[in-house]
Amino acid sequence: MSQDGAGVDLDKSLGYLLKEVSSALRTAMEEVLRPLGMNVTRYSCLELLAQRPGLSNSELARGAFVTRQSMNVLLQALEREGYVTRPAEAPVGKVLPTRLTPLGRQSLEKATVAVRSVEVRMLSGLTETEQAGTFRNLRRMIDSLREGSEGS
Amino acid sequence: MSQDGAGVDLDKSLGYLLKEVSSALRTAMEEVLRPLGMNVTRYSCLELLAQRPGLSNSELARGAFVTRQSMNVLLQALEREGYVTRPAEAPVGKVLPTRLTPLGRQSLEKATVAVRSVEVRMLSGLTETEQAGTFRNLRRMIDSLREGSEGS
DNA sequence: TGACTCATGTCAGGATTCTGACATAGATTG
DNA sequence: CAATCTATGTCAGAATCCTGACATGAGTCA
Fold first, then answer.
1. Which of B14, B95, B142 has its CB closest to that of A131?
2. ipTM of the complex
3. In chain A, which among 43-102 make CB contacts under 8 A with chain B?
């Protein structure tokens, strides 16, 4: 049924290909994360906290590409399960700095191994130079997209 | 608050960058599509039908990276609004081949212009050679990811 | 021919996410 | 110092999407 006969235009669209890669990567990550009782958003949140301790809810949301509201319910779950801690009262302003607990750090380690294996597999067909070039080009694309629609 | 001081590891992850580009691209597309009363999934569906007329619900779902169920409700809406047509009964098997109406084709044309402008902007900082190289590398990544987790 | 497998369309239910809105704290500006 | 603006955390509601399940039709194979 899936005859990719005529070379259609979508096959030449970088935007479509980007979505394809992103989708495949997410699927692969979910697969290796599921046995660990984790998903991509959870992992992203933990990884962000490991690299930048004390991040606020809003900052975590931006880093994981979800809304503040969604990240908040995730953080409540992570806090309830003992993976992260937040002070009961904001030390300054309304920002509640979040930190990983030893349990959270331990859980993240396993997940990081799994995720890294996926990324290694994804890049297995590319040389170091090709990886660097792709990285640079993707970064340029982001910059071009952002400068086009500056909100304020 | 957003001090990107220490060069953290996420800044070097191609997977994270991929998600960043994909997110920025989707946001940009939604922005230019909204004034036309359309969204990315709708556009993807119409574009797929323009390039491969007669596609089934399941095939459209795979092409737009959603489930059959989600695509079905979208198709019902598109059919109700007169953008696509489906035979009342399946000519063969259970597959209902979907086709664009003149109205659907007309609506797609405007959307295509808008979307293409976004893609052009995204690629404005890259030479033809760099675009081709990125395309080739992304395709390799997909292949590597897929061969890792072959279902059956 | 009959059993088996696979894919499709569809229904119901639940889970997840987002949009909209509010009060509050800090920064900015006159 | 007072007014304004921006950003944060949070609440409620709605919209979206997915998971699970079912019956049906086509292809395969003994």
1. B14
2. 0.88
3. 47-48, 51-52, 56, 59, 63, 65, 95
